[in-house]
Amino acid sequence: MIYFKDGEFLTEDKLNVSVNDRGYVFGDGVYEVIKVYDGALYTAREHLERLLESAEKIRVSMSYTIDELLEIAQKLQADNQISVGHIYIQVTRGVAPRAHQFPEDSVPVMIGYAVENARPLEILQQGAAMKSVEDVRWLRCDIKSLNLLGNVMAKQEAFDHGCQEALFVRDGLVREGSSSNVFGMKDGILYTHPANNFILNGITRRVVLQIAENLAIPVKEEEFTLSQALQMDEFFYTSTNAEITPVVTIDQQPIGQGVPGPLTRKLQTAFEAQIPKLVVA
Ligand SMILES: Cc1ncc(COP(=O)(O)O)c(CN[C@@H]2CONC2=O)c1O
Questions:
Q1: Which ipTM did the prediction report?
Q2: CA-closest residue to ligand 1 atom 2
Q3: What is the CA(238)–ligand 1 centre distance, in A?
Q4: Predicted model pTM
Q5: Segments of the chain scoring below 70 in pLDDT
Q6: Is position 144 annotated as part of the catalytic site?
Q7: Pairing of strands 243-250, 128-134
Q8: Cα(206)–Cα(201) distance, rounded to whole angstroms?
Q9: Which domains are seen in the chain, by residue range?
Q10: Contacts within 8 Å (CB) and 24+ apart, 267-275
C-alpha cells in the first residue's frame, strides 16, 4: 500500500508517526473520508473544502490548496489502484512534547492512504437496525475531528445490541448517527436535523437534500424527538461509505412496515444514478 505523509508517497515500511504527534496523544486533528467509485473520486472537492474548514475551526493552518489536496487524493487512488473504496486523509496539529496548550512552533502533519472496500450492497438492500444512545459528545460536532471516542463508544453500544449504527439523542432530540446523518420520512415530508454544531454537515446529507429537491420531495430541516423518529413512515442514515442505508428498526421497534420504504428506494436509485456526474475525472 502507498501512503502519503508530508509531501512524500511512501510504502508502509518507510512511514513513521511520532509518539509525540498531537493527533496520537490528544486526537488533536481533523480528517476526511472520500469515496472512490470505479476508480474516480466522488465529491472530493466538497470533502477537501470541509477538511480545510475543520482545520481552520481548530486553528491548524493548512499549507495545501484544494487543488494540491485533490492531486494527492487522486495519486493515492492511482498508486493503490483503487476501484471501489475510499481515501482517508488526516491532519494533526503536529509533533511536540506533551502539553495541552498549542505548541509554539509545531508543523501540521498530514497523512493519507487509500483502501479498497466494496459498497455495502446487502445492508443497502435489507436495511439496518439502530440503537438509540445518549449523545454525550462535545458541542462542536460540526468539526470532523479525530476526537471520536464518543462516536466509537456509541457505535460499540449499537454493536453490543446487535445493531449496525447508533442513533445519538441529546436533550430528547435525535441528532445523527455515530458515523452518519439521519433522515425520517413522514406523510411525504423528509425531515433531517439542521446543519449546526450538534451534527456533522455530511456531504452525503447535502447530496440527498439536492436529490430530494430534484425529485420535488418536500424537506424540513427540523429537529425531531426519538418518539417522533419511531413514528416515521421511513428512516435512513447517510454517509460516504453507508450511502443511503434504510433503517428498519430503532431500539428493536419496526419503522413503518419494518422494511425499506418506497421513498427511501427512490432516493437510493437517484443517488446511484447521479454518481457518474459527480466524479472527479
Ligand atoms: C459523526 C458523523 N456524522 C455524519 C457523517 C456523514 O458524513 P459524510 O456524508 O460526509 O460521510 C459522518 C461520516 N464519517 C465518515 C464517513 O465514513 N467514515 C467516517 O468516519 C460522521 O462521522
A1: 0.98
A2: 179
A3: 8
A4: 0.96
A5: 276-281
A6: yes
A7: parallel
A8: 8
A9: 2-116 (3.30.470.10), 121-274 (3.20.10.10)
A10: 267/208, 267/211, 267/212, 267/215, 267/217, 267/236, 268/124, 268/243, 268/244, 270/211, 270/214, 270/215, 271/207, 271/208, 271/211, 271/243, 271/244, 274/207, 274/211, 275/37, 275/42
